[in-house]
Design brief:
The chain has 2 domains: 182 residues, FAD/NAD(P)-binding domain; 140 residues, D-Amino Acid Oxidase, subunit A, domain 2 (D-Amino Acid Oxidase, Chain A, domain 2), CATH 3.30.9.10. The chain contains 8 helices and 18 strands. A hairpin with a 2-residue loop joins strand 9 and strand 10. The chain is globular, with a radius of gyration of 21 Å.
Length: 374
């Protein structure tokens, strides 16, 4: 195979964003993606841009907000160059409180975010119902992040890949078996079709990343199943995104997307009656009118999750020109565009202006792999 500047292993949302950003900098890029996998994370995501609603920890808040804000210019840019609408919607997300403890926690969170210079409001119960008639009647109030929103994950992935190909990137429908290194430097990737020499290799293979041979270290990424369901959006209800305890209801194109579970079920990617019951119970609590809506479809995907919940982004400390864009968990869509920019900057300049010190691969020890097992 012809040599390339950058071989990207994985063509989901993160890999696609990396390919687009690298190709935009004039690099010759090949994306290795064996094809749609029913267990992939991107299609099973609702595409929440919940930077202020679902920060895993304070170290990720600034990073998440910066990542979210990239979609404001990216959405029209992709629409112009590819004709694909990525469904960018930015009308805020409300995180509901149903008891005193949640009220205190969310009020404190809203105050902390305002101190950090972010737009964030606390809404009392009557303000919630005034804004969103039909919302949870037992809601005690809500943290409202007016600049959070959502994108369509599948449209985002398609658009980034299309734009990358417009810029000269090649999409190879092949599965990478091995990453090759020579003298402490990444030198290419191997598939059944043969070897492709590459000056840089980017690992963005989701839950399958640890299975690739030739990695210099065990990669502590494990699959966590997320189930989702869809119904019709209740007639007469304003479009919204409601959130509570990792569950959410999202309006998209006349549908209500209901999510999501966090299950340690290995690579078993299937929907379950228990999962549907959990999702529907949480969704109806947020928006009772959903009780009258039939479930139209249900699906599942596997999120690549690390022991501390932070992604792995940046260089391998021992193998030059091997770059990680892995382990994004529930934040893959939110962080995809920024991860692409970070990786492209690292490849072209050897540095990035984003602080990724908390995302280093060597912060994680292999024995931490089992820390989240039930």
């Amino acid at each position: 195979m012809d040599a390339v500047d950058v071989a990207i292993v994985g063509g989901g949302a993160v890999g696609a964003a990396c390919a687009r950003a690298a190709a935009a900098r004039g690099l010759q890029v090949a994306v290795f993606e064996p094809g749609p996998d029913p267990a992939a994370a991107s299609p099973a995501s609702a595409g929440l841009l919940a930077a202020q609603i679902e920060p895993t920890d304070d170290a990720l808040l600034a990073l998440s907000v910066r990542a979210r804000d990239l979609y404001e210019p990216l959405a029209p840019a992709l629409a112009e160059t590819t004709g694909i609408d990525i469904g960018f919607w930015r009308a805020g997300i409300a995180s509901f409180a149903f008891d005193d403890a949640a009220v205190d926690r969310l009020k404190e969170g809203a105050g902390r975010q305002r101190q950090a210079g972010l737009r964030c409001d606390w809404l009392e119960g009557d303000e919630v119902w005034e804004r969103w008639p039909g919302a949870a009647p037992d809601c005690r109030g809500a943290l409202f992040a007016p600049e959070d929103g959502a994108v369509d994950p599948q449209a985002l992935t398609r658009a980034c890949l299309a734009d990358a190909r417009r810029l000269g990137a090649a999409l190879r429908v092949e599965q990478v078996a091995t990453i090759e290194t020579v003298n402490g430097r990444a030198s290419g990737v191997v598939t059944r079709a043969g070897k492709t020499p590459a000056a840089h290799v980017v690992l963005a293979a989701g839950v399958w990343a640890p299975q690739i041979a030739g990695l210099p270290r065990p990669l502590p990424v494990e699959p966590v199943r997320g189930q989702m369901a869809a119904t019709a959006w209740p007639a007469g209800t304003p479009a919204a995104v409601f959130y509570h305890d990792r569950g959410y209801v999202l309006s998209r194109g006349g549908d209500a997307l209901l999510g999501s579970t966090m299950e340690h079920a290995g690579f078993e990617c299937r929907v379950t009656n228990e999962g549907l019951a959990q999702i529907f119970r949480g969704a109806v609590r947020l928006l009772p009118a959903l009780l009258n809506q039939a479930v139209q479809r249900m699906w599942a995907g596997l999120r690549p999750v690390t022991p501390d919940g932070r992604p792995i982004v940046g260089p391998d400390p021992d193998v030059e020109r091997l770059w990680y864009a892995a382990g994004h968990g529930r934040s893959g869509i939110l962080l995809a565009a920024l991860t692409g920019e970070i990786i492209a900057d690292l490849v072209t300049k050897g540095e990035t202006d984003v602080d990724i010190s908390a995302l280093r691969v060597d912060r994680l020890k292999p024995q931490a792999m089992n820390s989240h097992k039930p």
